[in-house]
Design goal:
This protein is an alpha/beta fold. The protein has helices at residues 3-9, 14-17, 44-58, 63-92, 96-116, 155-167, 180-197, 212-220, 233-245, 268-280, 297-312, 332-347, 398-406, 421-428, and strands spanning 22-25, 32-36, 124-125, 132-140, 144-147, 171-174, 205-207, 226-230, 249-253, 258-262, 290-296, 351-354, 357-358, 366-367, 370-373, 389-395, 410-411, 413-417, 437-440, 452-453, 456-457, 464-465, 474-482. The protein contains 14 helices and 23 strands. The structure holds nicotinamide-adenine-dinucleotide.
C-alpha cells in the first residue's frame, strides 16, 4: 500500500492532513506525509474547562456503565486493528507485527479495564472503637492529562485512558509531536465508541496536538489533577516538579537503561533469542529495550561470539516487508545520536561490532545494531541512548553482577538468565534488582498489560496498566461511621465537657 492509501484506510481526511503547521514525516523513507493543525495555546483553557465539566457528569455515572464505553472502545479497536497497526508502522517505522502488537495491547487493556469497572474495591477496616465501622472508598479524581512519547504512540494513551475512564476521570491527550497521525486516528476510533455509547458528556476524551508548549498547559493547570507523562528523563525532570509544585499528582514513565545478567547455568540458546529481541526489537526504541548485558566471565566469549554471528545477519530495512526485523530509527537525529554514542564508547575502550548507518529506502534512518564490549560500566554506558546499542560487561560473582545492574540512575526493567534457583530468587529479593520490572529467563521488554508497569529512580516511580495501577487515577476516602450512642475517642483520649 502507498502512504496515501494507509492514511486513507485509517480514516484520515485531506482536511486533517493538510494546511497545518506541524510536518509529519514517515521514518520509512523520510517523506513528508502530512502537515497537521496544532492546538493553539489560547485554546487550552476552554479545552480544560470542557474536561472539568465532563468530569462533573462522568463521576456520577456508575463505574460498570463507564466500563461499557471502554468495552465499545475495545470493539472498535478490534475492527480497526489492521489499519491502525499499519499507520503505526508508517508513522513510527515499527515492523508490521509490532505495529499490530501495539494495537493488540490497546485491546488487552480495554478488556482489563472493563473487568476492573466492577472491581474498584475499597477495604473495610477493623475499628478500635465499639459501635464503629471504618471503610475506604475510591472516588474519581478529575481530568487526566496524558503526555505520550513517540515510540508507543497509541498504546500508552490506552493504558492511561482505559483506566481513567472506568475510574470516572476524563482525559486530555497530548501525543508526541512526532506522532500526531496515529493519535488523530485513535481519537476517531474513540469517537465511534462514544457515538455508540450515546450519552457520554461532551469533552470526555479530548486530543490536543503540538509540542512541549501544548503539554505545558496541562502541566501547569490546577484543573488537571493527574498528569501522566511518558518520555525522557529530561522531560520528566521538568514536568514532575511543576506538577508537584501545584499539588497535582504526576505519573512519570521515563527513561530506562535495562540490563540482563547471564549466569553460567543459563540456557544460552534461549538467552541469545531473548537478547536479540530485547536489544534490537523496535530498533532499540523501547523504554524497556535491553541496553546492558552483564555476562559471567566463564561464558562471555562464547556468548559474544554467538551474538556477533546473529547480529551479522539481522534483516534491516523497510518495516512493511515480510522478514524485516529492524526498521528505521524515528529520524536522522536519532541516528546521529546513536553514531555519536558509539564514538564515545569507543573512546572509553569499547570494541564495537556493527553499529553502522545503512542505506535502506532512501531518506530513512537505518542502522545495523551495535554490540559493544566494554572494559567496565563507563559514563556512556550509564546513559540511555534510544537506539539499538547493547553494551557487554563482565562479572565474576552474582553480588557484583547485581551491583553493576543497580549502579545506573535509571530503574525500569531488568532480568536474569539462570537455571540456578538461588541466583534467581536472590535477583528477585530485596537485595536484588532495584527495578520496577525484574524477570527470570525472559528479556526485559514486551511486558503484558496485567502487571503494573513502571520503574524507580530516574524512571520516575509511576505505575500504569495492570494490577492496582488504577488507584493512581482515583482518590481514597477513609470513612468512620459511629452507629453507637457513645462518642469514644481513639487512642483512649478522654475529653469530657
Ligand atoms: P521526549 O521526552 O522527547 O517527549 C515525550 C513527550 O513529552 C512528548 O509528547 C513531548 O512533546 C513532551 N514534552 C517534552 N518536553 C515537555 C515539557 N517541558 N512540558 C510538557 N511536555 C513535554 O521523549 P521521546 O523522544 O518522545 O520518547 C523517548 C523517551 O521516552 C525515552 O527516554 C524512553 O525511555 C521514554 N519512554 C518511557 C516509557 C516508560 O513507560 N517508562 C515508555 C515509552 C518511552
Amino acid at each position: 500500500m502507498t502512504h496515501a492509501e494507509i492514511l486513507a484506510a485509517a480514516g484520515l481526511s485531506t482536511a486533517e492532513l493538510t494546511g497545518g503547521t506541524l510536518p509529519v514525516r514517515s521514518p520509512i523513507d523520510g517523506a513528508e506525509v502530512a502537515r497537521v493543525h496544532e492546538t493553539r495555546g489560547p485554546e487550552m483553557p476552554a479545552i480544560i474547562a470542557r474536561s472539568q465539566a465532563a468530569f462533573r457528569a462522568w463521576r456520577e455515572v456508575p463505574a460498570p456503565r463507564r466500563g461499557e464505553l471502554v468495552r465499545l472502545l475495545g470493539e472498535e479497536l478490534r475492527a480497526a486493528k489492521a489499519e491502525l497497526g499499519a499507520l503505526v508502522t508508517l508513522e513510527v517505522g515499527k515492523i508490521t507485527s509490532e505495529g499490530l502488537g501495539e494495537v493488540q495491547e490497546m485491546i488487552d487493556i480495554c478488556d482489563f479495564a472493563v473487568g476492573l469497572s466492577r472491581q474498584l474495591y475499597g477495604l473495610t477496616i477493623a475499628s478500635e472503637r465499639p459501635g464503629h465501622r471504618m471503610a475506604e472508598t475510591w472516588h474519581p479524581m478529575g481530568p487526566v492529562g496524558i503526555i505520550t512519547a513517540f515510540n508507543f504512540p497509541v498504546a500508552v494513551w490506552s493504558w492511561n485512558a482505559a483506566l481513567a475512564l472506568v475510574c470516572g476521570d476524563p482525559v486530555i491527550w497530548k501525543p508526541s509531536e512526532k506522532t500526531p497521525l496515529t493519535a488523530i486516528a485513535t481519537q476517531k476510533i474513540m469517537d465511534r465508541a462514544l457515538a455508540r455509547f450515546g450519552d457520554a458528556p461532551e469533552g470526555l476524551c479530548q486530543l490536543v496536538i503540538g509540542g512541549p508548549a501544548v503539554g505545558e498547559a496541562l502541566v501547569a493547570s490546577k484543573d488537571v489533577p493527574i498528569l501522566s507523562a511518558t518520555g525522557s528523563t529530561r522531560m520528566g525532570g521538568i514536568v514532575g516538579p511543576k506538577v508537584a509544585a501545584r499539588w497535582g499528582r504526576p505519573i512519570l514513565e521515563l527513561g530506562g537503561n535495562n540490563a540482563m545478567i547471564v549466569a553460567p547455568s543459563a540456557d544460552l540458546d534461549m538467552a541469545v533469542r531473548a537478547i536479540t529481541f530485547g536489544a534490537v526489537g523496535t530498533a532499540g526504541q523501547r523504554c524497556t529495550s535491553l541496553r546492558r548485558l552483564i555476562v559471567h566471565r566463564s561464558i562471555r566469549d562464547d556468548l559474544v561470539a554467538r551474538l556477533a554471528k546473529v547480529y551479522g545477519k539481522l534483516p534491516v530495512g523497510d518495516p512493511r516487508k515480510a522478514g524485516t526485523l529492524i526498521g528505521p530509527l524515528i529520524d536522522m537525529g536519532a541516528r546521529d545520536r546513536m553514531l555519536a554514542q558509539i564514538e564515545k564508547a569507543k573512546a572509553e575502550g569499547g570494541k564495537v561490532h556493527g553499529g553502522q548507518a545503512v542505506e535502506g529506502v532512501k531518506g530513512g534512518a537505518y542502522v545495523t545494531p551495535a554490540l559493544i564490549e566494554m572494559p567496565g560500566q563507563t559514563a556512556t554506558v550509564c546513559e540511555e541512548c534510544f537506539a539499538p546499542i547493547l553494551y557487554v560487561l563482565t562479572y565474576d560473582s552474582l553480588d557484583e553482577a547485581i551491583a553493576i545492574q543497580n549502579e545506573v540512575p535509571q530503574g525500569l526493567s531488568s532480568c536474569i538468565f539462570t537455571l540456578n534457583l538461588r541466583e534467581a530468587e536472590t535477583f528477585l529479593s530485596a537485595a536484588g534488582s532495584d527495578c520496577g520490572i525484574a524477570n527470570v529467563n525472559i528479556g526485559p521488554s514486551g511486558a503484558e498489560i496485567g502487571g503494573a508497569f513502571g520503574g524507580e529512580k530516574e524512571t520516575g516511580g509511576g505505575r500504569e496498566s495492570g494490577s492496582d495501577a488504577w488507584k493512581g487515577y482515583m482518590r481514597r476516602q477513609t470513612s468512620t461511621v459511629n452507629f453507637s450512642a457513645k462518642l469514644p475517642l481513639a487512642q483512649g483520649v478522654q475529653f469530657e465537657v
